[in-house]
Amino acid sequence: RAMDAHRGDALVQENGCGAIWCLAFLDENAAPLAQQHGADAAVLRAMDAHQQSAVVQAQACWAMCNLAAGNDENSAALMRQGAGAKVVRAMDAHRGDALVQENGCGAIWCLAFLDENAAPLAQQHGADAAVL
Predict the structure, then answer these.
(1) How far apart are the C-alpha atoms of 2 and 88, rounded to whole Å?
(2) Which helix (H) or strand (E) segment is 129 a member of?
(3) Hey, is 113 helix, strand or coil?
(4) Taking the alpha carbons of 3, 76, 36, 19 in that order, is the dihedral positive or negative?
(5) Could you write out the DSSP letters of every residue in 36-99?
(6) How far is CA 71 from CA 17, 29, 38, 99, 117, in A?
(7) I want to staple 61 with a disulfide (CB 3.0 to 4.6 A). Which of 8, 21, 45, 107 is the partner?
(8) What pLDDT, in 10s, does the model give residues 54-87?
């Protein structure tokens, strides 16, 4: 509810993404967070609303990684919602921020683990160029 009620507050979005990252670290939490509580959509909304905030982008990428890791349904849903493009956009916008680059690579790694995501990440979203 906090992320939804305070969409314009970068600090709430940063900390919300951080909380999702920690909660989704446990595999058994990742599915309900995304599929029942909409954590995936909240993370992507934070990325859209705070494109100029490197710290929000970094936290969102890390949260996305934990939501996608080991959960094919979450990973596919994130890609359907534009996660690949948002990660690459964040990495392009914050090339000088090592944490955005590190967490962006992590998000791409976790998303690409699902075979059906790997080709679109590289061919449509330019994730290969963002990483290299």
Answers:
(1) 26
(2) helix 127-131
(3) coil
(4) negative
(5) TT-HHHHHHHHHHHTTT-HHHHHHHHHHHHHHHTT-HHHHHHHHHTTHHHHHHHHHHHTTT-HH
(6) 18, 10, 15, 24, 13
(7) 107
(8) 999 999 999 999 999 989 999 999 999 999 999 9
